[in-house]
């Protein structure tokens, strides 16, 4: 059996042996707790042979736990300096493929061979939201996403209408998936320890959106407008978006929405009703 990488002394040894300097800019905080790594890998619910995409393997800690399930692991790492490390730490796992690249730039569907797959990652915090949005908006054949993010981001992803932290990220994540916060992770589980508490979120990707809309593009345009000026009433938001007064009245009447409400109180159903009223007006 291979050395368990998820131990403080092993991570220390690897960092020293390869003369690594962890890059804050690239969000490099490596996990050093076996139980945490095991829990994240478990949450991905992998089976032997199932394709899984890991974003940012670092020195290979979570990658090892994913590989131990027998899954077919593809791990995309941006930092060139980590490639020789990963070659060594994962040398006994034929079911791991390391790809050097930027997750924001690569063609994910092509990389994963146009097959359904799972995503499991301890995400670099400086681009958490762009990565999640890319995974969701490209309508990739993803079944489940298990990611570690900052606790605050996890809370925004699962926030309900009317709460202070409900926003465009909440709507997008809940439109495409059923998200659930699984557990929190304290800073001491990482090396170096980050300043914030982290949380693991599991998202089951929906086969169908929870609301049917005439035009998806317009739905997200409405969502974006509603949250761009949180303090304005929804009527005023539409006015700033350049919509004529009589058209605003028509949209509100048709969707049955009270224009004096703030956009941040709208449920997915209400956003859909507004979006459809707007689509009908334009047709
Ligand atoms: N998986 C490891 C662990 O849990 O210990 C490391 C996670 S660390 C929080 C984030 C990793 O993402 C780092 O290894 C970093 O180099 C990598 N990374 C940062 N930006 C990236 C990008 N745009 N594409 C791919 N990997 C990236």
Automatic annotation (TrEMBL):
NCBIfam families: ksgA. Belongs to the class I-like SAM-binding methyltransferase superfamily. rRNA adenine N(6)-methyltransferase family. RsmA subfamily. It comes from the Bacteria. SMART domains: rADc. It catalyses: adenosine(1518)/adenosine(1519) in 16S rRNA + 4 S-adenosyl-L-methionine = N(6)-dimethyladenosine(1518)/N(6)-dimethyladenosine(1519) in 16S rRNA + 4 S-adenosyl-L-homocysteine + 4 H(+). The keyword Zinc does not apply. Specifically dimethylates two adjacent adenosines (A1518 and A1519) in the loop of a conserved hairpin near the 3'-end of 16S rRNA in the 30S particle. May play a critical role in biogenesis of 30S subunits. Residues 36-207 form the Ribosomal RNA adenine methylase transferase N-terminal domain. Its main location: cytoplasm. InterPro entries: KsgA/Erm, rRNA_Ade_diMease-like_C, rRNA_Ade_Mease_Trfase_CS, rRNA_Ade_methylase_Trfase_N, rRNA_adenine_dimethylase, SAM-dependent_MTases_sf. It is an enzyme of class 2 (transferase). This is Ribosomal RNA small subunit methyltransferase A. Its EC number is 2.1.1.182.
């Amino acid at each position: 059996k291979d050395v368990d990488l998820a131990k403080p002394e092993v991570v220390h040894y690897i960092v020293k042996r390869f003369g690594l300097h962890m890059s804050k800019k690239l969000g490099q905080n490596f996990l050093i707790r076996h139980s945490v790594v095991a829990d994240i890998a478990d949450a991905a619910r992998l089976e032997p042979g199932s394709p899984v995409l890991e974003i940012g393997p670092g020195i290979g800690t979570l990658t090892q736990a994913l590989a131990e399930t027998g899954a077919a692991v593809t791990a995309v790492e941006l930092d060139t300096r980590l490639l020789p490390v990963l070659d060594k730490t994962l040398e006994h796992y034929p079911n791991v493929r390391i790809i050097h690249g930027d997750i924001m730039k690569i063609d994910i569907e092509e990389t994963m061979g146009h097959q359904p797959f799972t995503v499991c990652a301890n995400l670099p915090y400086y681009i958490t939201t762009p990565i999640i949005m890319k995974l969701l908006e490209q309508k990739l054949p993803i079944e489940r996403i298990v990611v570690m993010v900052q606790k605050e981001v996890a809370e925004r992803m699962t926030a309900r209408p009317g709460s202070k932290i409900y926003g465009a990220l909440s709507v997008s994540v809940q439109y495409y998936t059923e998200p659930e916060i699984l557990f929190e992770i304290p800073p001491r589980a990482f090396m170096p320890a980050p300043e914030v508490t982290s949380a693991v979120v599991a998202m089951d990707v929906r086969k169908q959106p929870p609301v049917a809309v005439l035009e998806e593009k317009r739905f997200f345009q409405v969502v974006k407008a509603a949250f761009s000026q949180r303090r304005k009433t929804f009527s005023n938001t539409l006015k700033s978006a350049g919509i004529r007064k009589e058209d605003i009245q028509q949209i509100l009447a048709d969707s049955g929405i009270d224009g004096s409400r703030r956009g941040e109180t709208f449920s997915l159903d209400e956003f859909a009703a507004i979006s459809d009223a707007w689509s009908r007006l334009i047709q």
